[in-house]
Specification:
- The chain is α+β, with helices and mostly antiparallel strands and 219 residues long.
- The chain folds into two domains: 65 residues, Winged helix-like DNA-binding domain superfamily/Winged helix DNA-binding domain (Arc Repressor Mutant, subunit A); 139 residues, 2-Layer Sandwich (Beta-Lactamase).
- It is 41% helix and 21% strand.
- The strands form two sheets. The protein has a six-stranded antiparallel beta sheet with strand order 5-4-3-8-7-6. A two-stranded antiparallel ribbon has the order 1-2.
- Helix 2 packs across helix 3.
- The longest helix has 18 residues.
- Pfam families: HTH_IclR.
Length: 219
């Protein structure tokens, strides 16, 4: 604070964070030009931001020279809600392999939900990637609506929420609220390709059982 007024955000830092968010949200690697367009910045400015992020291992280049998130982010994320990650991983792994779907946990961040941790099934032919750090609006998607139940302290007609082609075209999700002491409102969910026969009720029940098992870890 200065003179009773909040300090303006550091522009370069803000742009660097935005660059990481764009790379996290991208479906695959991005070129410098593509990232610059998403950020609304000149290529030269984007290049300097990328070089700085590369220096810290937060961004790296793929085989074709395009940009992807670097392994340094994993080291930063390792301690984010470590107890929550430890508690949910066994359940996510079991669910992912039982249903052949990617299982994940999202947590509330402002008016969005962000993926904290995800597990892809071992034997799936076409598993859907749900990268940690992926975020979307609270009012969209099954995890968002499941989390909103906790925020608004409301109960739905069913124990679970569903979504189809809302966040990403071609993808569907089932999610249940995950309310844990000492942690922001969260949801446990699966994501899968839209179409085909899916036992949504069975998945919803299984997710609710998993959520209850995780809650017991925190009692």
């Amino acid at each position: 604070m200065t003179d009773g007024r909040p300090e303006a955000p550091l522009q370069t830092l803000s742009r660097g964070i935005q660059a990481l968010e764009e790379l996290a949200a991208a479906d695959g690697a991005l070129s410098i030009g593509e990232l610059a367009a998403r950020l609304g910045l000149h290529r030269s400015i984007t290049y300097r931001i990328v070089r700085t992020l590369e220096g810290h291992g937060l961004v790296t280049r793929g085989a074709a020279g395009d940009l992807v998130l670097g392994a340094g982010l994993a080291a930063l994320a390792r301690n984010v809600s470590r107890d929550l990650q430890t508690a949910v991983l066994p359940e996510l792994t079991a669910i992912a392999n039982e249903y052949g779907m990617t299982a994940f946990v999202t947590v509330l961040d402002a008016q969005q939900v962000v993926t904290l941790v995800s597990v892809e099934p071992r034997a799936a032919v076409a598993a859907v990637a749900q990268r940690p750090g992926t975020r979307h609006a609270l009012e969209r998607g099954a995890p968002g609506r499941a989390t909103r139940r906790l925020v608004e302290k409301t109960a739905g007609e069913r124990v679970y929420e569903t979504s189809h082609d809302e966040v990403t075209t071609g993808l569907s999700s089932v999610a249940v609220p995950l309310d844990l002491p000492g942690h922001p409102p969260a949801a446990i969910a699966v994501v899968y390709l839209t179409g085909g026969t899916v036992d949504v009720d069975g998945i919803g029940t299984r997710l609710a059982e998993a959520a209850e098992g995780i809650r017991k870890e925190f009692r």
